[in-house]
Every structure is written in structure tokens, then in C-alpha cells.
Amino acid sequence: MVQFSIQSDSEIPASTQLIDQISFAITSRQYEPGHQLPSTRQLAQWTGLHRNTINKVYQQLKQAGLVEARGGSGIYVSIARSDSDLTEVPIQTVRQSLDKLLSLGCSLTQAKDLLLSEIEWRLSCNAQVLVTAGREDPGIAKIMAEELENALSVPIQTVAIEDLAQVLEHTGAGTIITNRYFLEATHQAIGNNNIRVIAIDIYNYKQEIDRIKELPANSYVGIVSISTGILRIAESLIHSLRGDELLVVPALPQDSYRLQTIARSADVIVVGHSGKEALKAAISSTKIDRIRPVEIMHCDNYISIDSIEQLRLELGSD
Hints:
Layout: H1 14-27, H2 40-47, H3 51-63, E1 67-70, E2 74-77, H4 83-87, H5 90-103, H6 108-126, E3 129-133, H7 138-152, E4 156-160, H8 164-168, E5 174-179, H9 183-190, E6 195-200, H10 206-214, E7 220-224, H11 228-242, E8 247-251, H12 256-265, E9 268-272, H13 276-286, E10 295-299, H14 305-315
Parallel strand pairs: 3-4, 3-5, 5-6, 7-8, 7-9, 9-10
Antiparallel strand pairs: 1-2
Helix pairs in contact: 1-3, 1-11, 2-3, 12-13
């Protein structure tokens, strides 16, 4: 069962902590599409927040396209526009599509031409692959792009959602990849442009979460990432799991003072791929000050393995 908890003395607003925790549960598939979310009454009991605040949280998640209200029933995880594509067996999909075309009066030759035309369009889309996220956190788009380039061996360009409309004015076709949290905003930004959007699921961080649960009280946990959003969500999640028991300090790789403080004093440091080198240098420069070695947990994946495999199919990557 997913846990939700609010750290009252955190610099992160309580409503943002709850949004982060629910968003993580959805985008890491701990809550599957169609799953019913806790009621406002349940969340109020668990978190101590007023139900009006929780209603506003759910409203913001609705606007992001992550949840939907079903009259008289409650709040559910949205079945996103791309979710149906993820569960269809390819050969069954082809056969069903062909049967549908024939039932509409198409001949086999006409159906062949239509399918080939669609394939050609997909190939043209794959000629340009964009990764997008909000402008306030360019680090998250960079992380997704680096992982996808390494996994798929295709060139990828990053662009802020706020700049998509302008970029697409000069693009005939393409594919946009984004975090599921940004899916609705991305669809709104592209309007009627001839471009497809694919949403990825994020890694569930089960191994890291299990380790955080095991840490002794009063442990010092450092978090290093180039994404301010990941740092904020990680801090919220750890507080939801352990409350005041752990000291959690986030740091960007370029924040040398805070990074050296973490390297000098933390018991455990969780670091993403893009922050490894900066952390390594900080640990090297402060090792004389340490009494015992620090435990490093490397998080090399932000995107789930299932999403990578699905993208290989979508993009025709070997």
C-alpha cells in the first residue's frame, strides 16, 4: 500500500508534498491506470491536511491529466491516451485494424495502401525525436534524453513545453517523448501539429525505497541530481516514509558547498547518473574529514525498463 505523509516543518509546501507523492505513485505505476485513489477523507486522516486542500491537490492532478473524477464513485488514475497502445499485442492489433478497414468497405489493396501510408508517416515522425518537460526543470528533460539516446541509439533533442509551439512551426512531423506528468500539457502545447506524443513511466525506485526504510533513525541521507524536480520529489517521499527520523539534504551537482557538506557527513548518498562525477570529486576532496566510508546508491535509471522496451517498438529501434 502506498504511504502518504506530510512533513510539517519542510520548506516544501504541504500540498506540493502530497502532489509529488501521488504523482510518483502514478508515474511509477504503483497505481495503475484505472486504479481508484484514496478519498479526500482518507487522505485527510493520513496526512492531517484539510479536505479542501486535498480537493485542490486532486484538481491540480486532474489538470495535469493524471487523475479523473467519476461521478459518485471517486477519483481514479487516468487512462492516458497512450496507455491502450502499451497493452495491445502487435499481431492482434494489425488483424483488428485490417478487419475494421474491410468492414468499412475497403478492399485489401486499399487497406494495404492505408497501412503503408501510416507506416511512412511513422518513419517520418521518427526522423525527429524530441524530449520535453517544463522550463522550470531543464534537468529532467536532460536526464530523459541521455537515457533514451543510450538505450535507443537515436539522436534526441530537448525542448521546454513552453517552447514547443514555436519549435513545431518549423517541423513537418516528429515524435515527442515526455514524463506522464507532463502529458496533458504537452498535448495542449502541440495543438493540431502533425506529431505524436509518447508518455514514459518512471522507474519505481523500489530498491532505493526499501533501503531508506531500513536506515537507523537519525541517519543522514544526501540526494544528488541535476533535476530540481527529482530532488524535491525524493525529499517528499523520504519524509513520507520516515517523517523526522532522517536528515535529508538535496543538492545539485553544481552546488559545490552543499555537495561537499553531503560528501563529508552523509551516511547514505543517493545519486543519479548525471551527478556521479561531481559527487566523486566532492568525496575525494573531503575524504580526509570522514570517519567512516559513505554508502553510495547509484540510480542509473529514471525511465522504467518497460517504457524503454515499448519505445523500441514504437520507434522501430533495434
